[in-house]
Amino acid sequence: MFGYVRPYKPELRFKEFDAYKAVYCSLCKEIGRRYGRVLRLTLSYDLTFLALLQLSLRDLPICLEKKRCVCNPLKRCSYLAQGGKNSTDLALPAAASVLLIYYKLGDNITDEGPLKALFYRFLRLFFKKAHRKAAADFPHLAQKIAAYITAQQQVERQKSPGVDAAAEPTAQMLSALFAACDPKKQESRALQRLGYCMGRWIYLMDAAADLKKDLKQNRFNPLAEEFSGGVELQPLKARMLPLLNISAAGAAEAFELIEIKRFKNILGNIIYLGLQNSTTHLFKENLK
Questions:
Q1: What does the alpha-carbon distance between residue 108 and residue 58 come to, in Å, rounded to a whole number?
Q2: How would residue 135 be classed by pLDDT, with cut points 50, 70 and 90?
Q3: Could you give the 3-state DSSP secondary structure of residue 12?
Q4: pLDDT, tens digit (0-9, with 9 covering 90-100), for 203-219
Q5: Residues forming beta bridges with residue 66, ordered by sequence position
Q6: Is 228 exposed, middle or buried (0-12, 13-18, 19+ CB in 10 A)?
Q7: What Cα–Cα distance (Å) separates residue 36 from each residue in 69, 121, 174, 239, 283?
Q8: Which residues make beta-bridge pairs with 76?
Q9: Which residues have C-beta within 8 Å of that of residue 281, sequence separation ≥ 6?
Q10: Is 84's pLDDT higher than 70?
């Protein structure tokens, strides 16, 4: 995952931001507990959104407690208290984080030059045991993610698949991942739609953000053919902004159909304000 799905902090209340950080830190802790401390470094904001979403569908009480950070013992962080089943609730996003980073390393091996590829090969071997355990914890989900990654690779082997076709496997993968968050399968269709739109938005954001670098290094990018003569801000913004806004709007519509039991303001902040802020930041800073 790419880390674009994050809250817009100025519009969050202090207690809401504290709750968001607590979920982030708790997911970090859960990844370390299940798959090893080094894997904590792979956590992204995107998976924190998944953890928040999964917790929001449950009626379990949420309490926070202060403990020292494993990565920085001098710092005290808020965590979800262990009195309920919070640890179990974070098992799926923890496994998803490990599964996705494993395949991301595979992409890096394909995309980078010989020296960097060698480094990523070593990392992938180092993460192989954790990947195997995560796949054993959620075999059905692991099979689906592997299938969508294969589909993504097949699409990228085509000469010019187009933006829509290139974004489809990632959108479908997030659709399946979000649907897996629902314990009673009562919100599956809305969650699938939410995941699909979020997955498409993430893929499009990454394609726009990496376009200059991908063109320079002759790597696959669905926008490469359209901008082979060079990347200029305004034409790229005119091309991508409508697509990003449509995906964000689709995510917002799906979100309104889901019965959210907690963290609704935080999730709403991310969907309505955070996605827009990330888009604005992309075109203001990364593509100058």
A1: 36
A2: very high
A3: coil
A4: 999 999 999 988 988 88
A5: 78
A6: exposed
A7: 15, 19, 25, 42, 37
A8: 68
A9: none
A10: no
Task: Compute CA distances 213 → 32, 115, 220, 230, whole Å.
Answer: 32, 17, 10, 11
Q: In the block, which residue shows the tokens 């935080």?
A: 266
Q: If you count them, how many residues does the chain have?
A: 288
Q: Which amino acid is at 130?
A: A
**Cα 190 vs. chain centroid, distance in angstroms?**
18
pTM of the model: 0.91
Q: Using only C-alpha atoms, what is the Rg of the chain?
A: 19
Establish how many alpha carbons lie within 13 A of residue 105's alpha carbon, considering only the half-sphere containing its beta carbon: 19
* Inter-residue contact 63 to 81 (CB < 8 Å): yes
By C-alpha distance, which of 12, 145, 177 is closest to 23? 12
